[in-house]
Design a protein that fits this description.
- Pfam families: PG_binding_1, Phage_lysozyme.
- Residues 38-93 form the Peptidoglycan binding-like domain.
- InterPro entries: Bacteriophage_GH24 (IPR051018), Endolysin_autolysin (IPR033907), Glyco_hydro_24 (IPR002196), Lysozyme-like_dom_sf (IPR023346), Lysozyme_dom_sf (IPR023347), Peptidoglycan-bd-like (IPR002477), PGBD-like_sf (IPR036365), PGBDSf (IPR036366).
- This protein folds into 3 domains: 5-98, Orthogonal Bundle (Muramoyl-pentapeptide Carboxypeptidase, domain 1); 115-120 and 220-300, Lysozyme (Orthogonal Bundle); 134-207, no CATH class.
- 45% of the residues lie in helices and 9% in strands.
- The protein is built from 13 helices and 8 strands.
- The strands form 4 sheets. The chain has a two-stranded antiparallel ribbon with strand order 1-2. The protein has a two-stranded parallel ribbon with strand order 3-4. A two-stranded antiparallel ribbon has the order 5-6.
- Strand 1 and strand 2 form a beta hairpin.
- The two termini are 30 Å apart.
- Residues 1-30 have low confidence and may be disordered.
């Protein structure tokens, strides 16, 4: 019987390369995992523990039940009983151990740390850019629909922005003052007014990739700050990046998600993220996809 290969792909990072790492069904990437960790590696551990008689829901979240099951195996196999699944524990469970772990995101850091000192990684910025930017659309003034206002670049929505702030931002990314003045007239517009303005001024500006990137960098700090202020427990870089993306669109549900994460109710937090799929009262396919990507990033570090 041929063993199945499981692969993950490294991100097409800014100035970086595509890459792929694979491991067999019976292999586990060598990384000690413990209570509080989550992702596909935890799910693989839970499945191995179930083969040893444990009764776990293989949800990829290392909670108390998983920790107790690990301790039980360690005790049975004569290992040091600490509830942490490292190399010896995986070998005792019959798994071949792959010795190299996935690389952390570019511009980020490995391990957990307090969110107060964290910022989005380059991988995280690219993750948001790939979701928000759409050549031929986002580089023009456009209206995404729903409750959005006139939008430019990777999600710069002008509905709740002032004329002055819009003008200053446009000049900051390299547009001339006259063009910035015309764009700033979109301040406060929404629904049909926003739709009409975007249509009438579609060719007023055509942003370059560099300008779209600079616009994203100008916007993101406010959402980094929101995550730092609301999350009270240590995060990994992938978790922080996923939450910044979620806060970026839509920020209103971040309070509920943060409350669940602060209580270590990760499954509830992920469910709450997946509920944020409407705009203007309508379910949006694009938001369904985005929420799935964000949950995948949070749990598995998949920057796509």
């Amino acid at each position: 019987k041929t063993a199945k290969l499981n692969c993950y792909t490294t991100s097409p990072l800014w100035g970086g390369w595509f890459g792929k790492r694979c491991f067999l069904d019976k292999e586990i990437m060598m990384k000690a995992i413990r209570k509080g960790d989550r992702g596909n590696h935890v799910k693989s551990l839970q499945e191995l523990l179930n083969k040893q008689g444990a009764i776990l829901n293989p949800d990829g979240i290392f909670g108390l039940k998983t920790e107790l099951a690990v301790k039980k195996v360690q005790r049975k196999k004569g290992l040091h009983v600490d509830g942490i699944a490292g190399r010896k524990t995986f070998l005792a469970l019959g798994s071949h151990v792959e010795t190299r772990a996935p690389q952390p995101p570019i511009g980020g850091s490995a391990g957990r740390q307090g969110p107060g000192a964290m910022g989005i990684s380059q991988s995280g910025l690219r993750f948001i850019f790939n979701i928000e930017a759409w050549r031929g659309v986002s580089n023009h003034l456009h209206w995404p629909g729903g409750a959005s206002g006139v939008t430019l670049g990777p999600g710069y929505d002008m509905k709740a922005r002032s004329i002055e702030s819009i003008k200053n931002t446009m000049i900051a990314i390299g547009l001339d003052s006259a063009t910035a003045d015309k764009i700033s007239a979109a301040a406060g517009l929404h629904h049909q007014q926003a739709k009409d303005f975007a249509k009438e001024n579609h060719n007023l500006v055509v942003l370059t990739d560099t300008q779209e990137t600079e616009l994203l960098k100008f916007i993101v700090p406010a959402y980094e700050k929101a995550v730092r202020n609301k999350i009270l427990v240590p995060l990994t870089q992938q978790e922080f990046d996923a939450l910044v993306s979620f806060a970026y669109n839509p920020g209103g549900r971040l309070n509920n998600v943060a409350a669940f994460i602060n209580q270590s109710k990760i499954s509830d937090a992920m469910t709450e993220i997946k509920r944020a799929i409407t705009s203007g009262g309508k379910v949006m396919k694009g938001l369904i996809n985005r929420r799935n990507y964000e949950v995948d990033l949070y749990l598995n570090g998949n920057y796509r």
